[in-house]
Amino acid sequence: MRLPRPAVLTAALGLLASTLVIGATAAPAPAALPNPAGWNLVFGDDFNGSAGTGVNRSNWIYDIGHGYPGGPGNWGTGEIEYMSDSTSNVSLDGAGNLRITPIRDGAGNWTSGRIETQRGDFQPAAGQKLRIESRIQMPNVTGAEALGYWPAFWALGTPYRGNWWNWPAIGEFDIMENVNGINSVWGVLHCGVNPGGPCNETTGIGASRACPGSSCQSAFHTYTFEWDKSVSPNQLRWYVDGQQFHSVNQSQFDATTWTNMTNHGYFVILNVAIGGAFPNALCGCTSPSASTVSGRPMVVDYVGVWTTGSGGGDPDPDPGTGFDAYGTIQAESFSSQSGTITEATSDSGGGQNIGAINNGNWLRFNGVRFGTSAARQFIARASSGAGGGVSGLVEVRLDNPANAPIGSFAIGNTGGWQSWRTIPANITGTTGTHDVYLTFTSGQPADFVNVNWLSFAH
Q1: pLDDT tier, 199 (very low <50, low <70, confident <90, very high otherwise)
Q2: On the CB side of 166, how many CA atoms lie within 13 Å of its CA?
Q3: pLDDT per residue over 374-402, tens digit each?
Q4: Strand partners, 304
């Protein structure tokens, strides 16, 4: 989507322990992302948070201005808006949604929002599949008032970061594009060379269809992209509400083009552009116009990335054996995470801890072996430098972050972010082998805990 287009688009385009443990009432569990059978969640954001606040910067980067520094102007597409990090343009609505809102000021200048994932390692392992999905309501505007609106949900090859001139060789997957309030979703692949090449640049290889049932603008629909390395030739597939409407496969491309597009990870982008080559091509005019209305947001319920293995850039550190529940599991050896950072620790033995943990973050540890004798206690090495009144729960969940916790402890300030305590909590008796999630729940948005290691006991 973001790189140059031609004038015409084809395809019509629970134990309380020690003085730091506080008797807080458990906050509600994070809203569940979908849990498709056979898939493992490796990244997710359900945009829960207070109305009028920005996105979690541990998950997202705000793109600012009219282009990447040193890259093509107007984001390479001719769009006219200034991308900002203002909550007027990018904010949570307090009901579990993100709103990206284009606004025109009194002088006729447009601002809007564009965010991209901090992570750029989303790709399937050999023999596995990757799934990128979002539930979105497009800006609810049609006709002349919608002229120039260009919402999109897409992924770009990570080698683009810091180069800005290697498109389209590094690949682009447009999962959902829409222009001018038309009741249609476009799915497009960009690759190879520009102009021309195997992806017919700058148009790309695309397909489109109307949204099932309710229009794209009047209701939420689910937009999904799958990158399948489990079949030969490999395939790329596009879906709306579970209905496939576009696909390409490896045999359509020469080996160099396919390798240059698929030998690296991708990052995910959400944005609403105003004007540019795509809306202009569809209307045969220059957009926006004086009739285009300001302030109609794209509303995003969630973004998730899943793999059929432990992949997505976070392979199981010991894929053959997983983790021994009764040994010390270092927090930084997670198989996957959302929203946290890894940093040096001053705790005994040195090494690293997981930090910047706040409400809705999680860590996953694949294949934790509990054996046949039930574990009944969870122990974690934790610390907190949270401010007064800030506290939260460290919870243990099995196999899915949406499942009910099997145990938890509450934590507030321990005297500093490197003031460590060993905290036990009772858990429901657990046997067998499970993916273990540490989930973090707080009634406040601030960071409230660091974790160095965890273990279980009978």
Answers
A1: very high
A2: 14
A3: 899 999 999 999 999 999 999 999 998 98
A4: 44, 133
What is the Cα–Cα distance from 405 to 218, expressed in whole angstroms?
Answer: 36
Mean pLDDT of 10-18: 34
With a CB cutoff of 8 Å and minimum separation 6, the contacts of 126 are 229
DSSP of 228-269, one letter per residue?
E-SSSS-EEEEEETTEEEEEEEGGGS-HHHHHHHHSS-EEEE
Block residue for tokens 């307090």: 94
CA angle 207, 208, 209 (to 5 degrees): 140
Strands 341-344, 362-384: pairing is unpaired
Q: Which two tokens stand for residue 129?
A: 């599949």
Q: Are the C-beta atoms of residues 178 and 218 closer than 8 Å to each other?
A: no
Q: Is 71 exposed, middle or buried (0-12, 13-18, 19+ CB in 10 A)?
A: middle
Report DSSP state, residue 158. G
- Give residues with Cβ within 8 angstroms of 77, minimum separation 6: 1, 2, 3, 4, 5, 273, 276, 277, 278
Q: Are 174 and 190 a contacting pair, CB within 8 Å?
A: yes
pLDDT band at 218 (very low <50, low <70, confident <90, very high): very high
Residues whose CB falls within 8 Å of the CB of residue 37, separated by 6 or more in sequence, listed in order: none
For residues 148 and 278, what is the distance between their CA atoms, to the nearest angstrom? Answer: 9
Question: CA 285, CA 277: separation in Å to the nearest integer?
Answer: 10
Q: Measure the CA–CA gap between 398 and 376, rounded to whole angstroms.
A: 14
Asked if the model's pLDDT at residue 5 lies above 60, the reply is no
Cα gap 445→27, rounded to integer Å: 12
Q: What is the Cα–Cα distance from 178 to 187, expressed in whole angstroms?
A: 9
CA distance readout (Å), 336 to 76, 230, 368, 401, 409: 33, 21, 14, 12, 22
Q: What's the mean per-residue pLDDT of the chain?
A: 89
SS3 19: coil
Average pLDDT, stretch 415-427?
94
Which residue, 34, 132, 87, is CA-closest to 401? Answer: 34
pLDDT at residue 92 above 70? yes
The pair of structure tokens assigned to 45 is: 């954001």
E-strand stretches of 30-71: 40-45, 60-62
Calpha distance 31→354 (Å, rounded):
23
Residues 335-353: tens digit of each pLDDT: 888 888 988 899 876 788 9
| 28-32, 166-170, 421-425: least confidently modelled range | 28-32
